Amino acid sequence: MMxxxxxxxxxxxxxxxxxxAGSLIPGSLILLAGGCLCFAGSVSADAGPMIPRDAWPxxxxxxxxxxSEMGITEFSQAPEWExxxxxxxxxxxxxxxxxxxxxxxxxxxxxxxxxSVRTAGWLEYYFNPLEFPLRMCPExxxxxxxxxxxxxxxxxxxxxxxxxxxxIRWSDGHPHxxxxxxxxxxxxxxxxxxxxxxxxxxxxxxxMRAPDPHTLxxxxxxxxxxxxxQLAHPSPQFRMPLPAHYAKTYHPDFADGEEIKRRTRDxxxxxxxxxxxxxxxxxxxxxxxxxxxxxxxxxxxxxxGRNFYYRRNPYYWKIDPAGQQLPYIREIAxxxxxxxxxxxxxxxxxxxxxxxxxxxxSDIPFLLENEVRGKYRTLIxxxxxxxxTLLALNQTHPDPGIREIIGDVRFRRALSxxxxxxxxxxxxxxxxxxxxQMFVAPMSKFYEADVARNAYVDFDPExxxxxxxxxxxxxxxGDGFRNRPDGSRLNLIVxxxxxxxxxxxxxxxxxxxxxxxxxxxxxxMLMRQRGQGNQLQxxxxxxxxxxxxxxxxxxxxxxxxxLSGEAATWGLWAVWFQTGGAEGIEPxxxxxxxxxxxxxxxxxxxxxxxxxxxxxxMRSQAENLWTIGTVGFSPKPVxxxxxxxxxxxxxxxxxxxxxxxxxxxxxxxxxxxTP
Amino acid sequence: xxxxxxxxxxxxxPLLGAISILVFVLMDLPPGDAVSAxxxxxxxxxxxxxxxxxxxxxxxxxxxxxLFIRYLRWAGGFLRGDLGYSITMEQPVNELVRERLGxxxxxxxxxxxxxxxxxxxxxxxxxxxxxxxPDHVFTFLAFLGMATPNFVLAIVLVHYSHNxxxxxxxxxxxxxYEGEPMNTAKFVxxxxxxxxxVVVVGTxxxxxxxxxxxxxxxxxxxxxxxxxxxAKGVGPIRLILKYPVRIAINPxxxxxxxxxxxxxxxxxxxxxxxxxxxxxxxxLSAVMQxxxxxxxxxxxxxxxxxxxxxxxxDLLLAVVDPRIRYE
Lengths: 675, 327
What we know:
The complex is a heterodimer of chains A (675) and B (327).
Chain A: H1 2-17, H2 27-43, H3 67-70, H4 79-87, H5 93-96, E1 116-120, E2 134-136, E3 143-145, E4 148-153, E5 159-164, H6 179-189, E6 207-212, E7 215-219, H7 227-232, H8 244-247, H9 257-266, H10 272-282, E8 284-285, E9 288-289, E10 298-304, E11 307-312, E12 331-335, H11 340-348, E13 354-355, H12 364-369, H13 371-374, E14 376-383, E15 387-393, H14 400-407, H15 409-417, H16 421-429, E16 434-435, H17 449-453, H18 461-470, E17 492-496, H19 500-512, E18 517-521, H20 524-532, E19 538-543, H21 571-578, H22 589-603, H23 607-624, E20 627-628, E21 631-632, E22 635-641, E23 644-645, E24 652-653, E25 669-670
Parallel strand pairs in A: 1-12, 14-24, 17-18, 17-19
Antiparallel strand pairs in A: 2-3, 4-5, 5-7, 6-7, 8-9, 10-11, 11-12, 13-22, 14-22, 15-19, 15-20, 16-21, 23-25
Chain B: H1 2-28, H2 34-44, H3 51-60, H4 67-79, E1 85-86, E2 91-92, H5 93-128, H6 133-147, H7 150-165, H8 184-221, H9 224-231, H10 236-242, H11 244-248, H12 250-254, H13 256-265, H14 268-274, H15 279-288, H16 292-320
Antiparallel strand pairs in B: 1-2
Helix pairs in contact in B: 1-16, 5-6, 5-8, 5-13, 6-8, 7-8, 7-14, 13-16, 14-15, 15-16
């Protein structure tokens, strides 16, 4: 019974993963195809079936064309804006749109206006992502122009010139200009109170100037090879552009200090920085919504408790190929602060138009079961994860015995070889994840198939036992488990905050080769503190940042850059690098090499050289297993109401793609107003 | 009586002072603070977290001041009716409490009513008809009610109420009534949702109450004065209501003391599971995120209510039970 159910499930899931409606194909054929897919996934050590590029419109991989390039001369708009235009309370559409607006091709069809959607969760990126100068493509790699129409980089990659599209306006009608960038840089980023700590890419010596209202020139002291990626997927404190005309009224450099004090007090806030954060960055404080102008498709209109309501922006600056102003959907309602279980139940009841944040692969059967009654489809996307469960070992642990064992590459290889990834895949992922080492994504420029395949990823317990014996880790006290060379117990602890299920199985597999490790469920806060205190031995985490946008900017799982909970591999090495050798532990040559490669990769103006350096980092990973992966690119359920159209059948979900950022949620539309 | 009451009230002040110190120190003991919780949030959004940022944030919220300075600031505000400022929510605690107090009190009051309305007659009946079939049935149900974890019952009820009546999942009313002023339609909609938490939280209390009442009443019914009264020809109902019930009702009265704080906080776990806009989940998240001011103030309010409630139930007990002396 279980087997049969599982087979039907993996059939349905693999069918969905191919984006195939399957109505014309006889059942047996589908079964066969599904079986083949599973098979293909289990023999190849890594690549697995990734999503083909033709799963999305080809134009999503290029810079968007503009209306004049497409020959569009007539523009139309949503009925409510037409009405307001007639009443004279809104300027005509031609004055609200840019002179030559960018055209976004919808996934399947041209939409119709209207309707409101409901979603849940604290991540608002569902329908309403922040707009940045650039946007990445569906594979989370190449960047496409968005707010800018062109970016020029000097040959040595120190000077970037951003040319903004003319005529884009904030949602209050105020023009969007280079001033909005300068304001952020000079008065928010460089303000010690608002931004206490500076991170890459901007430092005190970065210069920014605006030769004219639509040109921005950014000069770095050091060459910055990955600035384009940072413009498409900026870190959260990077909030460029901000509406300068509005933000100035909350900033003591421009506004009256007494007035700011009064407003801060009225809201019961502690300092002007909290007021600035509420009014300019978040746009909301409790139930109080500010008139924060936005560039995104929807602006927050009202808040009731944990329910947030957004209404479309009349000045949104993108159109569809029929000349209709986007977005199609009128209103978004979002409930915040519900639990994972409640979100799954609400989705299954059909209450949510689009939901995904909370769901795990294991929710798929339940979601599939309720599809008909809930009137929704469960699309099976892929998690953008190099490893769903990632193991990181602390090579700088204070106990020299542990440090020596963990630091021995044979130990890490044995751990990896003793993992039966196919078993994990079958039990937890319906055979639909990809058994692989922790490695960059197959679509990455830094990916080499043969290197990834030979990264100690095939199940080989015999070899694992041999390596452990060779290290002198044998069972000297006869309790059935291996001891340290000095005869004491080898008790390693794996701490985790949510990978318990998979880890139980992995620990079981390690016990088969005589390693008795223990699992300690923890909390994020505790783990981070223990990480900063260098107290962790091993952690189980998840391995994101494996695409071409995030890997070059933050290769924390492959290069000793950060000292924190989720990259416990090398705490004190990172300190050593950060302090120039004054503190921490001096890393071995392999790690110094990694750091040198990455430093050069960040600043080399030669593209081929950068790719070569990135590949060197990955070859080192395949050889040394700085972190150990299990399976990656696991199935991710995305629940979509039957009424909602233009949601891609396939996609990647994860931080590398900023959830659904590349999939143009502004082109989603509702087939009918009522369910 | 008067002397006793005054003495008790005067004693409450040093007691509450001691509690406030205890609450504050206990909250400070575990490693980490609201800033670490804030950093987790930032890290989840992909922001690099460094030691410098931690220091800057701690300074912004005065978390580096010595413990007693922070205590004095908090306690001083508390005396003036200012419950402090929640760092994780970036909102004054007064506002957070005000938003949630109404629904919390309504739900908790309904729970108490439900408990009493069910527990009293059932316990009464089980005792006077001991070992009858209805007694066995009620006993079975009572044990079942005590043994079922609240949150499981909550999920099961949500499931059936959605499938059978089409009630929306979670929350206290359907999405469309959010932010609307109270009207008939919204009221009806709330009624369709509110019974779930009431039944869930009420069931656990009911079960315990039924068992206590039954046991107490059985003790009394066997006493010689009952036999004497019956021999003298007092009617059965009048007899039981006049003497044994007055004594058996003690547990009802003494739980009034615990009632006040629970009215205020509601049931945290059920609140979280059902997504209710009550104070319980707020307290839970405050503790988990180490938001000291928020958690401390909520705990302190509950302590005050507990102390008051205990006094109240002591006084009521004295009224109900003539055997109690003020010594």
